[in-house]
Structure formats: C-alpha cells, structure tokens
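I'll show a sample.
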Amino acid sequence: MHEIGMCEGLVELLRRQAGDRRVTAARVRVGARHAVVGEAFDQAFALAAAGTAVQDAVVELVVTPMTIGCPACGVGSETLDPLAVCPGCGDDGVQLSGGDELVLESVTFGERASDVSRHPR
C-alpha cells in the first residue's frame, strides 16, 4: 500500500506549511500512473495525520489521466488505467505518457493551534 508513504510525505508538507495553524482542507492532484486507490488514500491519510494539526483536514484527491497513443491505428485518447489497451483497435502496444504528477494544489488553514485551546466549549 504505497499510499501510506505518499500520505506521510503529504502530512509532513502540510505541517510545515501550516506552522502553528490547523489545516482544514487540502486539494491534491495525483496522476493515474501512481495507481492511487481513493479509499486506501483516505485511510492512509487518516493514519499519517492522527495526532497532528492536520488530523481533521478534508483532503480532495483529484486523479489526472494519462495520454494513450496507439502506433498500430493512430488513435489517441486518455485513460486512468495504467494497463490500458487502445480503445480503437484493442492493441496492447500503446504508448502512455503523463499521469505521473503529484501536486499539492491548495491548502486551507483554520485557527492557530494555540487559539483553539482557549475557546470555551
């Protein structure tokens, strides 16, 4: 489950960005070539973020496709499947490009961690 390593790095990056603020939301763009499974990513993020200022953040995962090119028939397309075949002729000798990005697109911060402890409940 490579999502754990990815999420550990993401949590560390978010913690550095946050300083003493809480992170309430983040948007991450990941290419399909990484073969990230959404549910596994959510679980890995929750595990990596537990006990940190990032633990309650809502993370939006956006998966971007790869481009497929078929040398046999010339069809071009996009796919989320790293084992894709040509949608035109079914050939499995396609060329895949892109889909390898991993980008933290946005972060939303909340109150400073020190301010949260002073709020009455």
Remarks:
- The beta strands are 21-31, 58-64, 66-69, 76-79, 95-97, 102-112.
- The chain has three helices and six strands.
